[in-house]
Design a protein that fits this description.
2 copies of one chain form a homodimer. By secondary structure, the first copy, chain A, is of the alpha+beta class. The first copy, chain A, contains 9 helices and 8 strands. In chain A, the strands form 2 sheets. In chain A, strands 1-8-3-6 form a 4-stranded antiparallel sheet. The first copy, chain A, has a 4-stranded antiparallel sheet with strand order 2-7-4-5. Chain A starts with a helix and ends with a helix. Chain A binds a DNA duplex (30 and 30 nucleotides) through helix 9.
Chain lengths: 187, 187
DNA sequence: CTGATTTTTTGATTTTTATCAATAGCCTTC
DNA sequence: GAAGGCTATTGATAAAAATCAAAAAATCAG
């Protein structure tokens, strides 16, 4: 529990009471390597904090899977569009290694927001950070060559390269796995 | 004022009193065509609702400007990462046609959130919608050819093609202006 | 209206990257 | 430790799109 408390306290100096209210609704979950957290077509009704582990989010296009994102220890993960809208997810999230999560259900979270505005405030701040990160990912990969995108990833998220398969990283970087393999060969 | 009220009421059935509190902090602003709303390097301290008009957000890379997004009547616009962090913006936002805006300052908005949690709730819902839209933009342009990206834009946001210059749309779609011109030539 | 400037189109060529195909490496698991 | 099944690399070729260059069209200023 400490890890998630530390992260949350970094976002705002929220009253201890509110934090406890939030923590009271969390439940632990373990996902073995290779299993899925959420599958395409299901409604994502859990927001997960990755206490330990590494996951990949992807969707299918022409029978190939295309990586949307990787998430690691200390981050929140959900099929956001599905969680927000409570409609079926188009993405699947799988554990690339054994994961230990803290989860809160959509309903519990919404109930908390009604009762305690400090928690909605905290959630707003987190959402803003994720929005900015997404925007930067989108913008700064524009008009870069395949090699530049790979080098940028090494700089910003080296763990991904260590932990994920070449093909999974390649589709994340919008290139074929052969291209990524060649880039790696020439440093 | 009606337009912004209609939009806000669609997001949640917020008390009239809260809405009035919010509206009380809005100020009108007109931006002539060609002028900027926010310039690279400045801190973006206004969130703007486009009551009427059309704007483009872009940044510079190797002396060329690259379009990040277009926003039109009925939408909110700000240099989000700058507004959220209150640090200098890397993006510039220009009016592609004469704009009539309703603006609220960062400080006023934060003050309102402290006083009235209904408003923070409303803002959270809007932010979620923008997050989902951004994610979909990112995902659905992946592994599409230049032509597919253009056809998708015609489907989803035809106004952009009507109102923006070829080069501005091309960089938004991550292709050279010559490529876009050729795509247009072959329908 | 007309010359000047900007924007768009068109053409030729090069570069980048995808695709197809084969080989090599490597974990498993029996 | 060998067979089988993934995963990664390497090679040859094709396709997509960028770049360089010039012409045509549209817009603007006086």
């Amino acid at each position: 529990m400490e890890a998630i408390l530390n992260i949350l306290q970094k976002f705002s100096n929220i009253p201890q009471e509110s934090l406890e209210r939030f923590v009271g609704k969390l439940h632990e979950k373990s996902i073995p390597k290779g299993e899925t957290l959420i599958r395409e077509g299901e409604v994502c009704n859990q927001l997960s904090f990755i206490n330990k582990g590494f996951v990949r989010s992807y969707y299918f296009k022409d029978k190939k899977d295309i990586t949307i994102s990787f998430s690691m220890t200390g981050e929140f993960i959900a099929s956001m569009s599905s969680f927000i809208s409570q409609k079926p997810s188009y993405e699947t999230i799988e554990a690339l290694e054994h994961c230990h999560l803290y989860q809160i259900s959509y309903q519990d979270l919404m109930d908390l927001f009604e009762k305690d505005s400090h928690l909605e405030h905290l959630y707003r701040l987190i959402l803003e950070q994720y929005y900015v990160a997404l925007e930067e990912h989108l913008i700064f990969s524009k008009f870069k060559t395949a090699k530049e995108r790979y080098l940028e990833l090494i700089e910003t998220k080296p763990l991904i390269i260590q932990k994920a398969a070449v093909g999974q990283v390649a589709s994340y970087l919008d290139m074929s796995l052969e291209t990524l393999s060649r880039i790696r060969a020439n440093i």
